[in-house]
């Protein structure tokens, strides 16, 4: 089983874009347009997202899947950009091969440096109840309302809805392979890291961003007063500029 990807051809350094848990590789379209042709861009759909299905098989980790893809493509050194859950995958991947990761950009990152608060736990509870009841449209509505910030255009909200609805369908497949995680060791991540967080995001993610900046050896915090959880879709061009600066 290999994850599917889109390789946006350009010249120069390689940038790997790992999508959020409520999205797929389509969330990066504007960022890709700004990065190419100055960079070569690889953006995978993780298993259970976009065009990569979940299938029966041996246990796997998303980080190892991405690393296997990069090895298959002959990519040695790269900058790594992750959003939300994709940032957690990026931290795992960077811990595994820190010598190959030139820069890190983490947007609204998920990481095990803060305890989930009541708002996040309430979201998980309500989402779980809706999925258990089979009301996937309502569960999708809840995700869009929770994670898309106030500056997002209607077409961006519609895209998040489509991506999240497809994720529910993919991940409802029975008897699929079980996903795991690689360890994260922040002390190993000496590469320069840009951590981005929005003022309209859930408090858990704001706290996580601050804790990461305190813990990482070389990190800077960028706070966006206008952003929710998905700045790359809320103000695409502004976020593309941040990503371009972050990856060098």
What report would you give on this structure?
The protein is an alpha/beta fold and about 250 residues long. The chain is about 40% helix and about 20% strand. The longest helix has 18 residues, at about 155-170. The two termini are about 35 Å apart. The mean pLDDT is about 95.
Strand order of the largest sheet: 1-3-2-5-6-8-9
The percentage helix is 40-55%
Mean pLDDT across all amino acids = 94
Number of strands: 9
Q: pLDDT below 50 for ≥5 consecutive residues: which ranges?
A: none
What is the H/E string?
Answer: EEHEEHEHEHHHEEHEHH
Shape: globular
**Class derived from helix and strand content:** alpha/beta
Into which percentage range does the β-strand content fall?
15-25%
Biggest beta sheet summary: 7 strands, mixed
Enumerate how many helices there are, as a single number: 9
Q: Radius of gyration in whole Å, from Cα? A: 17 Å
- Cα(first) to Cα(last) distance is 33 Å
